[in-house]
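for the writeup, i need someone to sanity check this before i put it in the appendix. the sequnce is what the collaborator sent (i think, or maybe the updated version? ugh). structure was predicted straight from it, no edits. if anything looks off just tell me and ill rerun, i have time this weekend
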Amino acid sequence: MLLKELETLYKDSPISNHTRYHKESYVEGQIDYFIGLDSATIGSFATKYFKTIDDSELLEILNHKIHDFRSIALSIMCRQIEISKPNRQREIVDMYLSNLENVNNWDLVDMSASKILGRYLYDINDFDLLYELSKSENLWYKRVSIVGTYHLINNNLLQITLDLTDTLMVEKHDLMHKACGWMLRELGKKDTNLLTDYLETNYINIPRTMLRYAIEKYPEDIRKKILKGDFLWR
């Protein structure tokens, strides 16, 4: 059993409330626990167990207080959905959504939202849930909504990212600014003119961090002009 192996291997590991990549508290009152597993270790556990683990154990790990264990559970789900038939994919998505409160840090969102939720919604061509999540009071649900569009962007479905950014642009948290800017940057790789049009139209309202992330792939001289609101170069 995976959980038994994890608890045996790491029973004496020191636990911290944050890592160098995670602020001590992104959300008021939220406490998380880390043992410091790196991405390669998380991936190796997922690769070893994703074909054999049963859902009851997977759920137990997904609900575990240790952040790193939840990362392993999500990594397993990402692998499972890639090889599953539609009925099983729906079960994985249902499990993901039913336990979304445990996808409660930026890295957990970023590793799973597109590969699990975005992939599934693209396949069924129904994106209402992304719009619903974008209007949530929960920071992480909002981030799931925009990062979930990464799979859509990779499949040349771009407008939903812009629609969600319209909604999320007013958010105050830098984690939302960075996530929206990241998705806009990826959108720009597919259609630079579309991104430029969007930035010009919304320049006054776009948070500075979001803008900087969005324009990272432009040439340096163009980035400087955009940051000044100068679109006359077009």
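The chain is about 65% helix and 0% strand. The CA atoms of residues 74 and 112 lie 6 Å apart.
thx in advance!!
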